[in-house]
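Apologies for my clumsy wording, but are you able to produce some protein sequence, whichever is easiest, and the tokens describing how it folds?
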Amino acid sequence: GRLERIDVLPPGRVEQLLERLLAPLGRRVDRSSPIVDARLPDGARICAVLPPVAVDGAALAVRRFADHRRRLEEFTGGDGVELLDTVIASRCNVVVSGATSSGKTSLVGALLQRLPPGERVVVVEDTAELPVDRAAHNVRLEARPPSVDGPPPIEPAALVRTALRLRPDRIVVGEVRGDEVLALVQAMNTGHDGSLSTVHANGPLDALMRLESLVLQAAPTWPLAAIRQQLGRSIDVIVHVGRAADDATSARRVVSIDEVSEPADDAALPSTRPLTKWGDGGLSVVGPLRRRRR
């Protein structure tokens, strides 16, 4: 959890490393295309930026993922696990919210482990990183970024639409950040119950506001009232993850589970009803789940 300087690379060394990393992937980065985001064969993600975009010299970040797949019990106690199992069994549409590196992807991976083994799950990601350990009936789709002289890009929005034709029992979108939100929300409201996704937000209500702004960007001609009604009817539960302020270890964990209610009128944003509260004993359930799609 801390930064530590190990050594200093000589001039030109980062560029040499990038060339060796990207060549087997058919990708490149140079002054004409100074930014690259790619996935290595072992699953690690790299992001590199070259001058003149990188003012102080080439920068390379390698993000590696732990081999250990976290179980749901590592995110919350018995009450939270029981409630989330009920949410999954009821085929609620779930959005996991949280800040960067708060554990959203790991929690979705833990929820996937609780799915019935006979369900067919289609996973859509910008860059494949979800820990999918289910034995069978998985289809994983990964977006293809644009390149200077390569094939045309394939956006996540196109993959979500493709997922609808692959006979999914559940659709999982790794992270909503662009036009794919439109296809996902429509899928959630047209019979594809039990879908899951994640979004960057500081809380459950912020997650709804974030999704609203993304839908507005994807469909600027849609009336705001229609967007809010769509969100209220599509999303059932928002699970917020983070690092508990009173936890000395700052472990990533579920800090709240909220049920989404449809807006009371056309001008209102969908509201959230807390199903849990955080106390000295951790997460405890304070209300029953009312929205069930099974």
Helices lie at 13-22, 78-89, 104-112, 156-163, 180-188, 204-218, 224-234. The two ends are 42 Å apart (CA to CA). The mean pLDDT is 87. The longest strand covers residues 252-261.
